[in-house]
Write a structure and sequence with these properties.
5-stranded parallel beta sheet; globular
Length: about 130
């Protein structure tokens, strides 16, 4: 099992980035947040270069500037570490989105979402990111 124990939030809306980051902080979960797909690519490249520790879960908004959620997916899906990354797709479109191949798993969460729904999705795929009580 890998040493991953954090979440990457890829969201262009600053209030949602702040909200999600605070929710994770209150839950004792390590989280990072970036505003667009290009920054997410940089985050992954820098993380690999610095310590090799990758997020266990990525919360991915599909309507991003620079690189959309799908374009980000295309850039990272073939990386070896992607097969252990769970992706929670968030979208305000309200339409189902097909799972993204190459990742450990893909879940969908429509915006606006409730805190418990987000935490339950993460708990269902990566319970190890929650601190042990």
């Amino acid at each position: 099992m890998n040493d991953w124990a954090d979440v990457l939030i890829v969201e262009d809306e600053s209030r949602l980035r702040f909200f999600a980051t605070e929710v994770f902080r209150l839950e004792g979960i390590s989280a990072a947040a970036v505003p667009d797909g290009c920054e997410a690519v940089n985050y992954f490249q820098n993380t690999i270069a610095e310590n090799g520790k990758m997020p266990r879960v990525m919360i991915l908004d599909m309507g991003l500037p620079c690189l959309t959620g799908y374009e980000l997916y295309q850039q990272i899906a073939n990386e070896a570490w992607a097969s252990e990354l769970y992706v929670i797709i968030t979208s305000a479109a309200g339409e189902p989105i097909d799972p993204l191949d190459g990742f450990a798993g893909t879940l969908m969460l429509n915006k606006p979402y409730e805190v418990n729904a987000l935490l339950n999705k993460i708990r269902s795929v990566a319970p190890e990111v929650f601190p042990q009580s």
